[in-house]
Structures are given as structure tokens and as C-alpha cells.
Amino acid sequence: MKKILIPALLLAVLVIGSIGVALTSSDSKEETEVQEKETIETAQIDEPDTPLAKDDTEKDMTEEEITEAEATVESNSGQVSANTSAKKTKQAKKRPVTSIASPDTPKAAAGAVAAKPSASHRRPGSGSHSGNNGSSNSGGSKPVNVNTDLVKHDLIKSDTVPEINPLKGLIPFSGQTSFPHSMEWFYIPVSDVEVAEGQYDWTALEDRLNAVSDRGHQAVLRFYYDYPGETAGVPSYLINDYGLEMKPYDEPDALGGSGRCPDYSNQKFRQSMQNFISAFGQEYDGDPRIGFITEGLLGFWGEWHNWPFDEDTSDGKPDWSIPTQVYKEVYEAYDDAFDVTQLVVREPKDGIDNVSYKTGYHDDSFCYSTLSEANGGQSWSFMQRLINHNVENNWKFGAIGGEIYPPLQGELFKDSPQEVAGSPLQDWDACVAESHASWLMCDRIKGYSGTTKTNALNASKQLGYNLFVSSATFANELKSGDSLSLSLDIVNDGVAPFYYDHNTWPVMVGIKEDDTLVKKYYTSWDLNSVEALGGSQTFETEIENPGLGEGDYTISIKVENPLKGGVLFSFANQTQGSDGWLTLGTIKVYGAQVDYEPVEDDMGPGEEEDPVFVPVEGVYEAEFATMEGTACLSDLAKASNGQMVGWIGTGNGESGSLTFTNVKAEEAGTYTISIDYVLGEAQRFCTLDINGGQDAGGTSTEITFKSTGGWSSLGTKRVVVDLAQGDNTLHFHNDTGYAPNIDFIKVDKGSNPDPIEDEDDTDPTEPETPDQPDQPDEDTPSGNHTYAGPGLAIDLDDDDDYIYVDIICDTTLYPNWDLELNTDGNNATGYQLPWIWAEGTTGADFVVENGTLRLHHTDTADWAQSTEIEEGIQDFESSANGISFKIKKAALTTSEKTLASSIGFGLELKDGDWSLVKASNNGDQTNSMSQYNLTH
Question: Omega of the bond prior to 562 within 30 degrees of 0, cis?
């Protein structure tokens, strides 16, 4: 038989090619080694004028032998490819697989924050890698075989749950606190952003979101129209242009204050709500600064109810129930407007297909009325309502949030908690287990200390998800250019899922060398697919050409927070790093030279920058004073620097105080301290110790603060004190209760230079008559001074079309006020008001209530029977010490009332609970009201 000599180089290529293909299969190592050995031993090479292989002898092969050898190579190559393909296809059917074409590819994710560009440079510390292509180099000889077998690496679960993790745990109202938290809560009125019909200015929301995100936290927020004790959040055009009825109420016990409830059946109002929600979604769906949105808007505090003004009228209160159709419209509007950001709603409603809306729910009385009847709760409890409407399992895809019932926040986490009178204390563990809550508001965490703080922190860790990696499978060795295969088993033994997918919260694979991140790759792993209560999910990825050069590396994963600088996600594993990367194990790569680009890595919240502060002479901001104990910062848009200090005083054994040092006095003597503060309760007290107080040779002053009308409304309190020449120390505290929140103090030389009248006689000086009011604008008729009394002045004037009103008060205006008007000249008709501090009664036909004109229909003392007059008040303006507006004369002539030539008027200033603070005509008038004769 004729012999054919095959060139040695050609046959070697065939053989090595077969070996290389075989090595790509991770489960064919043994077969490859046998094949390599047999092929080299049997396929000897004859080639003239070429150095002979191995034993320097020629090997003759017949044509049949050559054909058989070639067939063997092709067969082995095809079989390896077929086996690999079949294996991958099988795996793809049973678990999610990601194929990554190239490293460092930016993701296209909603709400993601783009990486900052950076200059190219070599990998730190090592320069470039040397390639060897099978030959020896400075790194040593390449082994004949690189073991690319996949190896399962078991990871150890941590003994404790991470102290802080994004999108879960106890959270405060917006502000700073040392208690670990990842989110902050705030309310915001719709009127802050809807400035006119169809026009939205998002500046107020932007300011609040930025304040929260600058601290590395995501926000949970709720828009409202009606917040008891606060100014209504209804855009003014709905009232002035479309006659939306605003029903007044005053419920200091049931609701904590007064307000005005909109008529939710008004069609224009309903359409405006839907338009607002649509605009809100277009602007903010997927915003990385927002963790969750509570749908809000409807009812008191946006809590989807108007209790006690409901269908139960046995308490004598009218039925202001919100129509079922309105709930449905809001549900649908939010469902259409938001696809990415998670939504929660207060409660399911009767008559609505609640199951069709994929939302979470919000328990606003956690541990008070959480548990279902079967678990010892009430028939009307949060969980019982969810069960009654078949949405008790919504927690599997929509977060359960809420608020620990406020009266219980001071007791719940003590070692021996006590029930608050009238507030049953339900078991924390049972409430968490049945509700599957992920986050809960608890503003009292700002003041927790000692054991209470430790217990609260442990309770916070029980909420929401708890993810850990039980094992990771990858090869310990790779050749440069090989694909990197990785699979993970992730377990969630928390009470709830992680609610976002890879589009907003992606899982990254990272490669580190000497603790330096040199490569990262994005996956499409969805953490929200890992079920709670012990659920496990396997994830796989294949990173083609990961771009690694020869060296030793650690392989890690990290969940990227879309908020740049946000709280880092932590797995509950012992190898979880403080930089957010969870170390899975090590790999060794053999191969070529690679120059690395720097890899940007978000390390979470950094050092907080000191706020920009422009000092004003004599003014001392509370946020720059010394806060002791529980005292801490809270955001307030209306505050002078956007922040105030709260939790001053002592409650439930926890103490906080605020100290201003270096308060300057040019000379020893009497000074007036003006305190700008916020108080949503009827009154609070505080002690001011100057230069150490009486025990240290200084002075101590007890101060009474009255309500400013709500926790977002500012007021001013003035006290007269003695200061020493030079630097003084002012220490605010309350040893028996809480003081108000303080914005800043202002120091003026002298005794009460800007006088204030206080009902509590705290100020040691008598109030003085205020300065004359400012002159009106040029287009307003000249002032006609009609009333001046202690701390109050009212000017009226008129022309053919309007009555002009200017009200001057000697201090920051009280939160609520009424201007009563007798317009028909008849005291026997209208609202029968026994005018405070004056003789007789009067019949008030109209009232200007906080800027809204209302007509009184009958001769009773019930303003609830009144009707709002559309466009009756125009050019309304208010400042710290004054109000001005004009009343349309045509609005004062109706089918019931005729405008007389002389009108009576009187002003009442009210606190946040609508209790009288002061009034005009306090004893110095004989008539029921001051009189004004119309001149036109």
C-alpha cells in the first residue's frame, strides 16, 4: 500500500485544534486527555527536510489511516460542540441565563444614574500583563492544561441581618438622625406644585427630594389636598374659578386640628386629580430618588377616609364620604401613570375590583389595629380588610408599608412596653409575620437611645427582605479570552421580597485584583423573583470574552442602587464587603497582555457637606447650634435654611436640648430674643437657661409657646432677657415634656423692639401700639383707617367695584382667622355672633375665612350652612405681619342679601385648633362691630 507523508506542522494543527475544542467542554476533561495521548502516539509524522517529532523517526501513514484520523478530529469537534449546545439549552429552560457580549456595557435601565466619564490608565499597581501564547515568559511557563471545570463554592451566611439595607426598615419623617435608615418620609400639598390649571411647578418637590437624596436616602412620599391643622392643599383656581366647595371643620380631638374638606364629588376637581396624577407619573416614574409612593390625595391626610365625617351620622356629623367612583378613578390614574416606581395605597375599598390593581398597602396604625380577627385583632383591622377584599397576598408583588401608631411609638421598643390609654398594643412579631411589612414610619427613632434604640434596631432588621448567596459556581482557572460562566443560588429568608427588577436595581459581576475593581459586568438577574420566607432562585450568566489578562482575581457581585451615593445593598453573607461587593471566591487567569480602564464604583453615601451658611447679624440658626441627646434636624421648606431642630425636651425618659453658644452682646443689659418656631399642638413649654441658668449665676426663663397652626407653619415668640457683655450661652430644654421645633433665634438690643401681645403674659413688657400700616399700592384707593387696637390694625377703603382690606398684626400671623362682615345693616339677620369683649350680638352676613368669602344663609350660629362665593376675594396677599385683599362688591349683593351703605366688620385671630387668640373691639367699642361707611 502506498505511503503518504503528512507535513508535521499540518497534522500538529489538526491535533491541537482537536484538543482546544475538547477543552471548551467543562465536563469532558478526562476524555480530552485520553484523546490527546492516543492521537499523539498513533499519528507519527513523515516530512522530508523537517525535524522529526519526538523520537526523530518518520512515521508512514496509509491513505486509510489519514482519512480515519481526519474523521476522528471532525467527529470529536462536532461531538463537543453538540454536547455543549445541548447542555446550555437544557439549563436555559430551567433557570434564567444572561449572555453578556462584552464587559463594562452600560445598562439601559429606568431610573439609572449614568457613570461619570474618567480618563484611561493602566491597571493600578501592575502595569500591563505579558502574553505567552504557550511559550515561557516572566510569569512562568503556561501549563499544558488549564482546568476550566466549573466548581461549586459554598458561601457562609452571616449570623446577623445587615443593620441597614435599601428600601426597608424603620424610617423617620424627613430629617437627620443617627438611627440607621435608608428612606425618609414626607407629605406635600398638591397646591405646592399645581400653580394653575394644567400648570405644574415641581420646584417644591425637587427641593424635598434633593434634601433626602443628598443624605443618601430614598424618599417615600404622599400628596394631599386636606391635612387637618394645615392649610388646605387644594389649588386655588379650583375654588376661585370653578366654585369647588370647601367644607370647614374643627376637630382637635378626633383629627388634631381644623381645616377645609373639598367636595370630592365635584367633577372639575376629579378631573384635575387625574390630570395631576398623569403629570406626576410622566415627571417622576422611575426617579431613583423615590423608593415608594403612597397614592394619597383622598381624605384627611390623604388616607382615603373622612372619618368621623362618614356614613355614620349618629354622632351628629355630616356624611362627607368619598364616592366609590372617585376611588376607582384615582386607582386607575396611578396605575396608568406609574410603571416602574412601586405604589402603595391606604386600604382596599368596597365596590371596587381591588384585586385588579397591583399595588401594595399602607397600615397607618401598625401594632394598634394590624392583626386580623383570627390572630386576635379587630373586625375592622388592616389585615382583616385586606382579607375581606382578597388582597392579603398582595405583599408578594407590592410592598406593605405604613406607620407605627404614633401614641405607641414611645412604648413599643422599651424592655417592658406598656399600653397607652385607649391604644391596645399588639405583638410586634405577630404583626410583622402576618402583614409582611417592608417599611414603617416611626419618627420617634430620632429620639431613641440606649436599650430602646437597640430594640428598635433589631425590630427594623425584621422588616422586608433578607437575601444571601448560598453557593456560587464558576471555574477556578481560565485562559485569557475564555468565557466566564457563573451561576448563583440566592435565598431570601426575609418576610417580604425585594420589589424591584434589574431595570432599576441591577446585579453586577465584578472582578477585583488586589482589592481594586478592574472589571464589572451587568446582568439581567431580577432579585424580585426570589420569593420570601426561604425561597431560592438560581441565576446564571455567561460573560463572553471578559477581557482579563493573566493574574489572580477575586470574583464578586453587587446590587447597584440607582441613586448615586445611596445606601449600599448588603447580602447576609460573611464575605459581604462594606463597599457593597460580595466576594464569591478567586479565579486565576492565564494568557495575554491586557491594559485596564479604570472602573467607577459607587461607594454609597459619603461625608455630608456642610450647608452653605451666610450669617446675618444677630441671627443664630438652630441647625448650627449644639444638639444634645435626642435633639435632631428635620427638613422644613419654609424654614430659613430649609431645616429646623426638633425633639427638644424630655419624653418617656429620653432627653434632648439645644444650646446656642457665642451669642453676642455689645454691652450688658436688656435684650429681646425672638424665637422662630413650629408647633402643631395647642401649646408646649420650654425653659431657657442663660449662661448656665440660676444655679450657675445666670437666669432661667419659662416660656409658653402656642400653636403655629401645624407642623409646617412658622411662628415667632419673643422674650426679654438680660445678657452679659460679650459671648452668652442660651440653653433650651424641657425636663417634663417636649418643646416646639426651633428654626432660629434673633437677638435685638432693648426691650421688645418689635412688640408682641401674648395671652400667657410670658413677656415681661406691656405690648405697644403697632406702627401705622404701610401705604396701599398706587392702584388701590388711599387708606381709610377704621380700627386700631392693641396689637391689631384694620384699614378699609372702597371704590365703585371693590372694598379694600388691609390687616396689620404685631407678630407673625396666627394660622387661622375670620373677618366677619355685616353687610345689610341689620344685626337681627345673619350669623348671630356674640362678639367677643363687646356688648350685644351681631348678624354677620358674610365671613372671609382664611382668604375665602362665604355667604351665611340662615339666622343661626352655624357657619356650616354657608356657601363659598366664587371669585369673591381677589388680589389676596399675606406676609409675616399682614394681609391684604379686595372684596368684590357685586359678590356681596345676592338674592338673600343687599349691600347697605354702611357695613360692620370684626376680625378674629385663631390658633391651629380654631380657638380664639385675639379679636378686634376688645372692650373699647360700644357697637357690636366697627363700622365703615362706603364712600362709593
Answer: no
What average pLDDT does this structure show over 593-600? 78
Alpha-carbon span 844 to 255, nearest angstrom: 28
SS3 849: strand
What is the reported pLDDT for 77? 36
Q: What is the dihedral of CA 101, 104, 110, 114, to 10 degrees?
A: -150
User: How many C-beta neighbours within 10 Å does residue 443 have?
Assistant: 23
Task: Please tell me whether residue 21 adopts helix, strand or coil conformation.
Answer: helix
Q: Strand, coil or helix: what is 143?
A: coil
Give the span between the Cα atoms of 299 and 308, in whole angstroms.
Answer: 11
Helix (H, G, I), strand (E, B) or coil at 607: coil
Question: pLDDT band at residue 594, thresholds of 50, 70 and 90?
Answer: confident
Burial 179-200 (b: 16+ CB within 10 A, else e): bbbbbbbbbbbbbbbbeeeeeb
Report how far Cα 437 is from the mean position of its chain's Cα atoms: 16
Task: Extract the C-alpha cell encoding 867.
Answer: 356657601
Q: Of 416, 451, 368, which Cα lies nearest the Cα of 654?
A: 451
Residues 6+ away with beta carbon under 8 Å from 734: 648, 649, 650, 684, 685, 686, 687
> How many angstroms separate the CA atoms of 800 and 804, rounded?
11
Residue from 289, 284, 401, 303 nearest 344 by CA: 401
Q: What is the pLDDT of residue 439?
A: 98
320-355 residue pLDDT tens: 999 999 999 999 999 999 999 999 999 999 999 999
The 10 Å Cβ neighbour count of residue 898 is: 13
Q: Which residues contact 194 (CB under 8 A, 6 or more apart)?
A: 200, 235, 272, 276
- Nearest-CA neighbor of 12 among 55, 48, 59, 45? 45
Residues 472, 585 contacting (CB under 8 angstroms): yes
For residue 880, the model assigns a pLDDT of 60
- 811-847 pLDDT, tens digit per residue, is 555 678 888 888 887 777 787 766 543 445 678 889 9
Handedness of CA 905, 909, 915, 921 (dihedral sign): negative
3-state secondary structure of 30: helix
CA 368/CA 371 separation, integer angstroms: 8
Cα torsion 492, 496, 500, 501 to 10°: value is 40
Helix (H) or strand (E) holding 869: none
Q: Mean pLDDT, to the nearest integer, of 277-306?
A: 96
How many Cβ atoms from other residues are within 10 Å of residue 432's Cβ?
A: 22
- Residues 6 or more apart whose CB falls under 8 angstroms from that of 486 comprise 472, 473, 474, 509, 540, 541, 543, 555, 584
Interhelix angle 324-337/267-284, rounded to 10 degrees, is 20
3-state secondary structure of 369: coil
Query: Is the separation of the CB atoms in 360 and 347 below 8 Å?
Result: no
Show Cβ contacts of residue 87 under 8 Å, excluding neighbours closer than 6 positions.
27
Among 383-392, 608-617, 691-700, the minimum mean pLDDT is found in 608-617
Beta strands in 708-763 (DSSP E): 710-723, 726-733, 741-749
Three cell numbers written together for 620: 443664630
Instruction: State how far Cα 451 lies from the chain centre.
Output: 27
Dmax over Cα atoms in the chain, in whole Å?
Answer: 142
Which residues fall within 8 angstroms of residue 315, CB to CB, at 6 or more apart? 308
Q: Give the residues across from 441 on adjacent strands.
A: 171, 403
